[in-house]
Design brief:
The protein has 353 residues and is of the alpha+beta class. The protein has 17 helices and seven strands. It has helices at residues 27-39, 44-48, 55-58, 67-81, 86-93, 101-107, 112-122, 154-172, 193-197, 229-249, 252-261, 267-273, 278-287, 292-310, 315-321, 327-338, 342-350, and strands spanning 24-26, 64-66, 132-138, 141-147, 180-182, 204-205, 211-216. Strands 3-4-7-5-6 form a five-stranded mixed beta sheet, with no helix packed on it. The protein has a two-stranded antiparallel ribbon with strand order 1-2. The longest helix is centred in the C-terminal third of the chain and has 21 residues, at 229-249. It is globular, with a radius of gyration of 22 Å.
């Protein structure tokens, strides 16, 4: 169960405007979240106002919710609640089924290890936001780590951890306790270790590189008594069909453009975030009559237009912000984009509304 190690970047993952609707989460994920917010005194009506989220959309399990709308409801909930414990309380109140088909696959797996494998294989059905997973083993322990390049929100991570502990206790029994937790953020406000201990049954380390939970390795071999091999086959077939529909919903090029726009412009890292090999990514883009270099070029051109029109940075600073270490290379790129020099492009774009 070894997954490629994380690649981190410096994206601000609460930037509501940057991802548009390129990435999505399952409607069951958003529906459970809104229900848990409601239990904690934050009504869903005030959270979804002005978004594309409607009761009708949430009523259909196959529907998807745009990541930008998920970010909106989290930002509003944090502001309305004002509670440092919001993420923890939401995880505690979350109704079963928050992770949709993933939970059904887990409940019908032979062991916890099999359940983890199913979750990793089909996680995109819950969220296709490029979440990165690492599973590492050593010293009789297994550590499961995750980080999302577009949604590394502390409260959301706390919700997932509390909900995760509830799920494994449901699968294997209340005597199952993690060994340790790690969070990439600092404790909220005035929260103490004692406060966190009311929700999570293991010591927590804050300010780490990734978010993780560590369990005894033997736990992964424990049998899940509720499992049904017949039902698992049915659920797996449904999951496979939904993956096909999800992949067809938007082009690979659109996904690549979103990642590049967020600052990830290395093809190997982009391919890894999209859970495919570099060769597969290149082939998929070619099938769409596109190429990675072309997408990177178009994204940089778009950013250059904005920076030139803003007239806040010097030409040298703009070149650096666009990732050009060599001034000559930057000048050649501007000439290719706008048919003139950087100073000429500034003058040209000054006349564009």
């Amino acid at each position: 169960m070894q997954i490629t190690a994380n690649h981190r970047n410096n994206n601000d993952n609460m930037d509501i405007t940057s991802e548009k609707a390129s990435f999505t989460v399952a409607s069951s994920y958003a529906k459970g979240l809104l229900a848990a917010f409601g239990i904690n005194g934050v009504p869903s009506e005030s959270l979804i106002a002005g978004t594309a989220i409607t009761p009708e959309l949430l009523a259909v399990p196959e529907n998807r919710v745009a990541l930008c709308d998920l970010q909106v409801i989290w930002a509003r909930a944090i502001e309305i609640s004002g509670s440092d414990c919001l993420g923890l309380d939401v995880g505690q109140a979350m109704p079963a089924g928050h992770w949709g088909l993933i939970e059904m696959l887990a409940q019908n797996s032979d062991t916890l290890g099999d359940a983890f494998d199913a979750a990793l294989n089909y996680w995109r059905l819950v969220s296709d936001t490029g979440k990165r997973f690492t599973v590492s083993e050593g010293g009789g322990l297994i550590t499961f780590s995750f980080w999302s390049p577009f949604f590394d929100l502390p409260q959301a991570n706390e919700t997932d951890m509390v909900y995760f502990e509830r799920r494994i206790k449901l699968l294997l029994g209340s005597d199952i306790n993690p060994v340790a937790y790690q969070f990439s953020h600092k404790p909220h406000g005035e929260l103490t270790d004692k406060d966190y201990a009311r929700y999570l049954s293991a010591p927590i380390e804050f300010g780490c590189e990734v978010n993780s939970v560590t369990l005894q390795a033997e736990v992964f071999q424990r049998k899940i008594t509720s499992s049904s091999s017949e039902l698992k086959l049915v659920v797996k077939a449904i999951a496979e069909k939904q993956l096909v529909l999800l992949d067809a919903a938007k082009s690979v090029g659109q996904k690549v453009q979103t990642l590049v726009n967020g600052g990830t412009d290395d093809i190997d890292n982009v391919a890894s975030l999209l859970n495919m090999s570099t060769r597969t990514l290149q082939r998929r883009l070619k099938e769409e009559d596109s190429a990675f270099k072309h997408i990177v070029n178009e994204v940089k051109k778009g950013k250059a237009e904005v920076l030139f029109q803003a007239r806040i940075h010097s030409i040298q600073e703009i070149g650096f912000l666009l990732g050009y270490q060599n001034e000559r290379t930057f000048y050649d790129a501007v000439q290719r984009w706008f048919g003139t020099s950087p100073s000429g492009a500034i003058a040209l774009l000054a006349n564009v509304d």
